[in-house]
Design brief:
Helix content: 55-70%
Strand order of the largest sheet: 1-2
Largest sheet: 2 strands, antiparallel
Radius of gyration: 17 Å
Shape: elongated
Number of strands: 2
Number of helices: 7
Order of helices and strands: HHHEHHEHH
Structural class: mainly alpha
Distance between the termini: 35 Å
Length: about 160
Amino acid sequence: MATLAYLGLAILGWGGFAAFFSHPALIALAIMLFALSGVALFSGGNLSPGVREDRANRWVIVAFGLIGLLAAYLPAYTDQKGSWTLDGDAIRWLGVILFVAGGALRIWPVFVLGHRYSGLVAIQPGHKLVTSGVYRVIRHPSSAASTMPTAVARRA
């Protein structure tokens, strides 16, 4: 449902279904959004409070929800209006590439941790420090995936 809402807000920001899907990069982005969402269904992650949860961080769920709503609508709206944009199609395709790479890097650790992964900051039953796979190279891959587009934009 969240995937449909996110895409719906982007379509609304672009001025409708026909306007959004008239750009090949945006069609690719929609396809990859559904592909990554489908893969995430089989990841084994959860929202369990586990054995011990840091409830002081729950406010971020609401904050990230609001930021997500803005991130779904505002870029599409400004791109459609031609404000706050760079170069058009080349940047759209770069965005698709960054979205797919960031999404894959975000989902990968959930597959590695399986049922021990929680979207909440919590100690899960059977928790242990993982130092293999993606965690051998990146200590916090989900966080790295979230900041990847920002890091690239700062270098540009």
